[in-house]
Amino acid sequence: MVVVMKSGASDQQVQAVIDRIRDCGMEAHVSKGTERTIIGLVGDERQVDFDSIAALAGVEQAMPILRPYKYVSRNVHPETVTIQVGDVSVGKELVFMAGPCSVEDEDTTLRIAEAIRKAGAQVFRGGAYKPRTSPWSFQGLREEGLRILSKVRDETGMPIVTEIMDAADIQIVGEHADVYQVGMRNMRNYTLLNELGNTSKPVLLKRGDSATLEEWLAAADYIFRNGNHGVILCERGIRTFENYTRNTLDLSAIPAARSEACLPVLADPSHGTGRADLVEPMSKAAVAAGADGLMLEVHTEPQRAWSDGRQTVTPEALRNIIDACRRIRDIQA
Amino acid sequence: MVVVMKSGASDQQVQAVIDRIRDCGMEAHVSKGTERTIIGLVGDERQVDFDSIAALAGVEQAMPILRPYKYVSRNVHPETVTIQVGDVSVGKELVFMAGPCSVEDEDTTLRIAEAIRKAGAQVFRGGAYKPRTSPWSFQGLREEGLRILSKVRDETGMPIVTEIMDAADIQIVGEHADVYQVGMRNMRNYTLLNELGNTSKPVLLKRGDSATLEEWLAAADYIFRNGNHGVILCERGIRTFENYTRNTLDLSAIPAARSEACLPVLADPSHGTGRADLVEPMSKAAVAAGADGLMLEVHTEPQRAWSDGRQTVTPEALRNIIDACRRIRDIQA
Amino acid sequence: MVVVMKSGASDQQVQAVIDRIRDCGMEAHVSKGTERTIIGLVGDERQVDFDSIAALAGVEQAMPILRPYKYVSRNVHPETVTIQVGDVSVGKELVFMAGPCSVEDEDTTLRIAEAIRKAGAQVFRGGAYKPRTSPWSFQGLREEGLRILSKVRDETGMPIVTEIMDAADIQIVGEHADVYQVGMRNMRNYTLLNELGNTSKPVLLKRGDSATLEEWLAAADYIFRNGNHGVILCERGIRTFENYTRNTLDLSAIPAARSEACLPVLADPSHGTGRADLVEPMSKAAVAAGADGLMLEVHTEPQRAWSDGRQTVTPEALRNIIDACRRIRDIQA
Amino acid sequence: MVVVMKSGASDQQVQAVIDRIRDCGMEAHVSKGTERTIIGLVGDERQVDFDSIAALAGVEQAMPILRPYKYVSRNVHPETVTIQVGDVSVGKELVFMAGPCSVEDEDTTLRIAEAIRKAGAQVFRGGAYKPRTSPWSFQGLREEGLRILSKVRDETGMPIVTEIMDAADIQIVGEHADVYQVGMRNMRNYTLLNELGNTSKPVLLKRGDSATLEEWLAAADYIFRNGNHGVILCERGIRTFENYTRNTLDLSAIPAARSEACLPVLADPSHGTGRADLVEPMSKAAVAAGADGLMLEVHTEPQRAWSDGRQTVTPEALRNIIDACRRIRDIQA
Which residues of A touch D332 (CB under 8 A)? Predict the structure, then answer.
């Protein structure tokens, strides 16, 4: 931590800060500038509440230096974690997770899954529990949806990723899914994250729409530090003033997260843009930026989808996206 | 819903949209403009997935007209709900909820509570379960914290408001708290909201830091429609580019929420600004904007607080804030 | 400036930073922590480009400590500047600047001005040059508008504030206006700011919709340091994801700006909210937060206004706002 | 425009809106829904001030349907404009504009230019007039900088792009530059845009950091409709809450702008990220998303750059970026 004193802070005020730092078992280094005095902390500042130091008289700012996460940091784990999902080694080879926003009736869902598999996707996605802004919108088929997802795996061999909304559902969702998906609304549901850290299945952790990169990686650390190292990050857009797109897909977060943390990073251009016509260019851009794969909303009849039709592409479009992305990936190598 | 066709959309495309709308059991009204054709839906559009209509060929935009909430709307409930918390009728008279960010040891917490009560606050706040960005930060005293809160009520007579982070904790938190607090990170935890709707205790629902007014009111509807009408809204700042303050306290949301919905609205200038020196002016501003009360972080020694010291004021400052706010409220009446 | 080295930075890298700082004629103080080394600069860092230091090998972050402004700082000018506009001492007493968004025909404008004067406003506002997002929208009456504004002053005695869009118009606008208004789109038009610093008339400087508090005060410094101390700040809302309101009026910027700088601060709740029904509550809130006055869009027939009718209030509403604000101000004193 | 009446609006209120629309010479189509009445306008709504209609009694919302721009729209100009800059046909082939943030002394600038040319860039960029947040930062070499830029063109043959900050400088900057650059701070300086529309040199128009896609294209329309069709758009990042990067580079704006407008679109990953380590991945991502080229900050010694060193790459890095981007572009074709 660096503590910046106000210009005009008294010697007593400076000393009070130093004393407080030492009370916490850390060392303080003082630099007197022409306008301000700056005090540096020596030790693991994560144990100190920097807001309380900021509340001391004469302090202008107390700035953290260390990250809010430890274990997912490249400093601790220099190598990218590889996570096995079905036949795919996520983190090593490109992965494409595709499917409808919501699980629909069994026939439709199986038909979509088959088309998606043929188009080259390796993992099937579909929501059984649907977090919806309005209580009056369709909330998902729930347990019935999970049953249909199991059927998809049985029939197509594709592993399943599906959203979990509450720690109480870990057991039942785990019986049907191969990968737990934490949606952006639950990225800061720390009870859920902590308990997923005690499971042995991979977790796909979407970035919250108002989460900074550091907060996202700290959320991953909640899972990782409990022993579950199978955390796959997924950038899905942040909330900004721009309303042409549903969210603003922050592709710079992909190389940044890969540089700071030891985890694979996917992109979700469907939610990230909310517009089917932008899914292909942004898919290619994500892979060019270094993404380890994509999560995409795909439906055989987007205009018949039970939710999110506007951002859904067809299996044919999916095939083109996968082809283009693989070629871009080959260049990177 | 209003569907705007692309300029150059064919008659068949227009007809396909009309057919689709009628399939959903609604009526369609068509306006042909010089550049575009516009189709209006007649019926309750909340039952239709507007994204799927947006996915039809030739459609440029499909814009919802109805709000994503129903029951909390002033159209349904013209009168503001009054919620009894201890001796205070929230929604009728100004309420001040105050206390430390985190529940601390019993002695300190009791001392703070007594000072706060004398300063004029009617409800005690304090966090036992602390959602923290970093897994390495202090996570709250949990059950031990709840026990201390019960002691505070016993000793001071003040009702307790404290945060709940997971639906599984409804029982235990309800044994100690008079008001459940849903923090900004859980505003979109729909499992939690749904289950709180089945309880009989008031819920203080903070606005998510990336939630629009409509999304916030829709979250309230999750609780309200299940039968629990005791929902108190609390504006606590949204996330913007400005970093002088911790968040940007959106005071316009107070008169807006009061105008759109039937619920009382508080403000939290402590989290809303993150700076003790801004708490008093923003408290007064919130009441002048029509707030039904305030939630404030108060500690006898802010610089010793276990968390959030920078935004914490003293009981003396609290007394001044309460006095000033009461005088502003008197003018309003 | 504080330079934070990467964990693992070599001694040579640390030395290179120190050498670079000394090359700039400043001193460096080094603190070696358990994870990182921190280097503090001693001297006026504004002369150093901190991005170049951030580019040195082994540097993780280079954080500025000093503000980007000097002369408007309370450290340099402890007393609030008082600015005379007609009979009003802005900074000492509440000022209300009101009028239509655009100057309209002479008769309408005079009728509005007379009604506004009677309602208690002291300064007339109206746009002759209108910056409009679309080149196809009404761009203002320009010179003809300025002539009408002069007529308003002659007939009502009210001083005039009107927007200037380009440095080339300083002469002609100055012939008709008593206060130059710099709109939010021009807050970073440094050529204009520099030249307004060479005039002797007050400047009302609106905050840019993506400007931080520091950037806004730095813009004021462009005017102030050239010798024109008559700078009136005006908060008018920032751009956020919320779309219920046109902008998000950041009232915390009012006490913050008053605390950091020596200048009076107004609020513009008309642009800040974009909704006539929110103008009164946000006007009162602004004054309760410490605003030195308000700028308001007022028209005798808002639904006939040539622009911005949705956020325009009537002279009767203005009278109520002024009365309520004066009573709130009296409490503050 | 679509006018949505409040639920409960009276027939007289609906009729008043219809009358007002007809007064403007347009037609109104009425749809009565179960909860609301919706009125569609038939005609060119750009001539109507929709805020004034929104101010009529009983109106809930008035939503524009048409874009705020006309001439740059693909509806008017289906083909992408090709703009000749030196030997490059911008819009047809990839263009790389590179150089230091600020023009420095002649020797350094020439040395950088030569290295950049060899690395494969076709256009030289460098700032002579520097818009800086703080009046105390280096403001550029101004006329002396322009002279050095001319020298660069003479010695290397590379065309020059440089920033213009004020309409009064059009003449002098035009004598030295081949392309006028409008920086993000001036995207809404409509006086400057209008006058650049009367010149015959290409204009590189950066997106404002709080500008929506529509506002950016409307700004381009200010130039285009005056006769200068040589407008090159450049996405350079928007302002969001994320502070890991300097701005958030909104790559989805590239395919979106290319789809809506007839203009070539570049990306500036230097300002867009503010971090040298993210420039390469985001350069590749931009080209994969369909960018027509890049603008990059390059310096032979980034840590010696007079400004923006942290986001500046070396000529060697530039060569790798150009190579990778060309290979990605080849795949696209």
Answer: 284, 324
A289-301 pLDDT, tens digit each: 999 999 999 999 9
Q: 3-class SS at D16?
A: helix
Q: What are the backbone angles phi and psi of residue B127, rounded to the nearest 5°?
A: -95, 125
Size of interface B-C (CB pairs under 8 A): 114
A residues 276-305 lying closer than 8 A (beta carbon) to D: 277-278, 281-282, 284-290
In chain D, whose CA is at the least distance from the CA of B240? D241
Q: What is the pLDDT of residue B237?
A: 98
Mutate to test the interface with A, among C26, C29, C210, C238 (most CBs of A within 10 A): C29
Contact C244 B212 (CB under 8 A): yes
Strand ranges (DSSP E) for B138-178? 160-163
**Nearest chain A alpha carbon to D256:** A278
Q: Tokens at residue D193, please?
A: 């845009």
CA trace torsion A230, A236, A241, A242 (10° rounding) = 160
Q: Is C38 helix (H, G, I), strand (E, B) or coil?
A: strand
List pLDDT tens digits, range B20-55. 888 877 888 887 776 778 888 777 776 677 777 888
C259 touches chain B (CB under 8 A): yes
Report the SS3 class of residue C271: helix
pTM given for the model:
0.94
- Residue entry with tokens 């299996």: A315
Q: Which among D183, D220, D210, D214 is positioned nearest to D308, based on CA atoms? A: D183
Burial (CB count within 10 angstroms: exposed 0-12, middle 13-18, buried 19+), residue B173? buried
Q: What is the distance between the alpha carbons of residues C323 and B332, in angstroms, rounded to a whole number?
A: 11
Lowest mean pLDDT across A91-105, B274-288, D213-227, D305-319: D305-319
Q: Residues C65, C6: contact at Cβ < 8 Å?
A: no
- List chain A residues with CB under 8 Å of B68: 133-134, 136-137
Q: What is the C-alpha to C-alpha distance for residues B42 and D34, in angstroms, rounded to an integer?
A: 6
- SS3 readout for chain A: CEEEECCCCCHHHHHHHHHHHHHCCCEEEEEECCCCEEEEEECCHHHCCHHHHHCCCCEEEEECCCCCCCCCECCCCCCCCCEEECCEEECCECEEEEECCECCCHHHHHHHHHHHHHHCCCEEECECCCCCCCCCCCCCCCHHHHHHHHHHHHHHCCCEEEECCCHHHHHHHHHHCCEEEECHHHCCCHHHHHHHCCCCCCEEEECCCCCCHHHHHHHHHHHHCCCCCCEEEEECCECCCCCCCCCECCCCHHHHHHHHECCCEEECHHHHHCCHHHHHHHHHHHHHCCCCEEEEEECCCHHHCCCCHHHCECHHHHHHHHHHHHHHHHHHC
| pLDDT means over runs of 10, chain D (333 residues) | 86 91 82 77 71 84 83 93 98 97 95 98 96 87 96 98 96 97 97 97 98 98 96 98 96 98 98 96 98 97 83 96 97 78
Cβ neighbours of C107 (radius 10 Å):
9
Q: What is the DSSP string of D234-279?
A: EE--B--S--SSSSB--TTHHHHHHHHBSS-EEE-HHHHH--HHHH
Domains belonging to chain A, first-starting first, are 2-63 (3.30.70.1140), 83-332 (3.20.20.70)
Burial grade of C295 (CB within 10 A; 0-12, 13-18, 19 or more): buried
User: pLDDT at position C230, please?
Assistant: 98
Interface residue A250 vs chain B (CB under 8 A) = no
The C-alpha atoms of residue B142 and residue B207 are separated, in whole angstroms, by: 23
List, for residues A174-190, the tens digit of each pLDDT value: 999 999 999 999 999 99
Q: How far apart are the first and last CA of chain D?
A: 39
pLDDT surpasses 90 at A7:
no
